[in-house]
Design a protein that fits this description.
Helices cover 80% and strands 0% of the residues. The longest helix has 43 residues, at 23-65. The protein has 2 helices and no strands. It has a domain at 35-66.
């Protein structure tokens, strides 16, 4: 569930107010947006891997105990 939430952060748009007359401000806003999305994507991938590992572990335990 946490992996899906982190993936939603990556794909949902975020409104940033920047002045179009200041390219430096636009560049900083884009860098901030990309940093946030990259962090959320890494978190989603890590949480997905943890969830998949837990599912695999649960399946192995269920098969060995049957």
């Amino acid at each position: 569930m946490l992996a899906l939430w982190a993936a939603l952060i990556v794909i949902l748009p975020q409104r940033l107010d920047v002045d179009s007359a200041w390219p430096r401000q636009q560049k900083a806003a884009l860098a901030s947006l990309l940093r946030r999305k990259a962090l959320a994507l890494n978190a989603a991938a890590l949480l997905f891997a943890i969830g998949l590992s837990a599912l695999g572990f649960a399946l192995v335990v269920a098969l060995l105990s049957a």
